[in-house]
Structures are given as C-alpha cells and as structure tokens.
Amino acid sequence: MTSQILKVGLVQHSNSHDLAANFAKTVQGIRDAAAQGAKLVALQELHRSLYFCQTENTDLFDLAETIPGPTTDALGALAKELGIVIVSSLFEKRATGLYHNTAVVFDTDGSIAGKYRKMHIPDDPGFYEKFYFTPGDLGFTPIQTSIGKIGVLVCWDQWFPEAARLMAMAGAELLIYPTAIGWDPTDERDEQIRQRDAWIIAQRAHAVSNGVPVISVNRVGHEADPSGSSEGILFWGNSFVAGPQGEFLAHGSETDEQVMVVDIDQTRSESVRRIWPYLRDRRIDHYQDLLKIYRD
User: Fold this and answer.
1) Taking a C-beta distance cutoff of 8 angstroms, is the pair 50, 78 a contact?
2) Element (H, E) at 194
3) Dist CA 294 CA 296 (whole Å)
4) What are the pLDDT digits (tens) for 216-248?
C-alpha cells in the first residue's frame, strides 16, 4: 500500500483584548504553516478573542459574527490565496438572540466547504458556555473537502466517545478538535497534570477506537477573570497530532506560541483498521441502552 502524505498545520497562540492583533497572529500562523507545506491548517477554538465565557455578560454578544461575515470572508480569501484547507472556530450570530460556537471549514478555492456547530455545551465555573451558545443542530456530519472528508468537533465534544464514533461511522478520515482548555491556577500541580493527561488520553483513545488520526489545537497563556472572582484560566497548550493507533506524531509546548507542521500518512488508517476491526465487531444489537441518559 503506497503511503499518501498530508501535511497538516496547527496554530497555537495566546490571545488578548485586541481582536485585530489576535487575528493578525492567526493569519501569520496560517501563512507560516502554508510556507512549510501544510495543505490543511487547524486553528484553536474562538481564535479571534479572549475566551469570554469566564463570565456571563450580555455585552459580549457583540463579539459574534454572521456566517458568511467579515472573518469568513478574510479566511476564505486566505485559503484561496494559499491553496489550502483552513479549519476555523467562530462565535456565530445566527439570528438576534441565537448564537452558536461554530467551526467553519474553507476549501482550497476559498469557498465554505461546511460548518459544524458545537453539540456539547459546558456550564462549569469559568466555562459558562450555555449562557452564550445554543447547542448545535447540524449533527455529527463530516465535511467533504478537496483533501478528504474531515470530522470537526469542538472542545467539550472531545470528551464524548459517541461524537468521535459517529463522525468515523459517517466516513471521517481524521478528527479535528479546536480547543480552549486550561487550569485553574490555584489547583495543585498534581491535579493540573491529571487534568491535562486525561484530556490527552481521551482524544488519543478516539484515534485508537476509530482508527483515524486526531488533531487537537489548544491556546496558551493566562486570561484573567473579568469579574475578579477567580484567578482566571491558564490555558495549557499541548496541541498535538495522534496517529490511528494513538501514537504521537507531534506534541506542542505547554506554554509557548507555536506553529507545527506534521506529516500524516493517510493510508495508515486502512492498514490499522484491517488489523483492529472495531467497526466490524461492534454489537449494535445490544447497544440500545446507549440512548438512555442512565441505566437505573
């Protein structure tokens, strides 16, 4: 079986209140990755702004954009100029009072190949996303691009094996997780390490159990809590790419801004799935209880 290499780029960076500076940093990262040969570039969750969900503030709905809109126009033009696929993550204003956390995929001709609206919405201290985002209504549907069929999921989705499985069952050739996740700076270091390792293990497991590569892109840096009620969030970086057996193909810094370009052999999923046929051996005739919230 002849290998088929896809070069993918990951843009990991910190953010500030300056939207223009954030976007300039993102664009430069995309250009750097493309200059290194990347044909697919994945961005972190909500890359235009600070992670604004630490508090509930109606003024922050002003950050939302329509799709299409100014940012999608700019990223589409960039994808066309560079001849690459870009996976972005935006705060979508669908209608007045209706907003989503939405990933938009641009094809090499600059068109919007598709979008995915985040399905699992957290509501935890420092991550008050239910205040801002309506759960997605597009399902777990891969997006066809000129470089293959990709399954895009967003942050909290990465903890749910059902989401990864449904994307793989629909033909996703790789899974991409734009992410914004970090520590409470007051947590003890041992607890921080446990959280980070659980995050990595969960996503590597999706690669293993579905026989597909996984790309996860996180941000870095400390972002203060505007309310002052907590110490904010220290985003832990660690963007990575795992192969179809969960093996690390690349693993980024915990603290530094970074552009990584990684080779993915797209034929390895075929080889791995022939040896580890999880899809063949699934007992769907005994999985009905998965449709229940809990088995009492």
Assistant:
1) no
2) helix 189-210
3) 6
4) 999 999 999 999 999 999 999 999 999 999 999
Secondary structure class of 247 (helix, strand, coil): coil
| Three-class SS of 266-292 | CCHHHHHHHHCCHHHHCCHHHCHHHHC
CB 127 within 8 A of CB 78: no
The domains of the chain, with CATH numbers, are 5-282 (3.60.110.10)
Answer for the pair 166, 140: CB distance below 8 angstroms, yes or no: yes
- pTM recorded for the entire structure: 0.96
Each of the 296 residues of the chain gets a pLDDT tens digit; together they read 566 999 999 999 999 999 999 999 999 999 999 999 999 999 999 999 999 999 999 999 999 999 999 999 999 999 999 999 999 999 999 999 999 999 999 999 999 999 999 999 999 999 999 999 999 999 999 999 999 999 999 999 999 999 999 999 999 999 999 999 999 999 999 999 999 999 999 999 999 999 999 999 999 999 999 999 999 999 999 999 999 999 999 999 999 999 999 999 999 999 999 999 999 999 999 999 999 999 98
CA atoms within 13 Å, Cβ hemisphere of 16: 7
- Pair of tokens at residue 213: 């590569």
What is d(CA 15, CA 145) in angstroms, rounded to the nearest whole number?
29
* CB-based contact 253:237 (threshold 8 Å): yes
Which helix (DSSP H) or strand (DSSP E) does residue 5 occupy?
strand 5-12
Backbone angles phi and psi of 81, in degrees to 5: -60, -45
Closest-CA residue to 38 (of 74, 73, 95, 85): 85
Give burial (CB, 10 Å; 0-12/13-18/19+) of 281. exposed
As annotated, the active-site residues are 45, 118, 155
Beta strands in 70-186 (DSSP E): 85-95, 98-106, 112-117, 123-124, 127-128, 143-145, 148-152, 174-178, 182-183
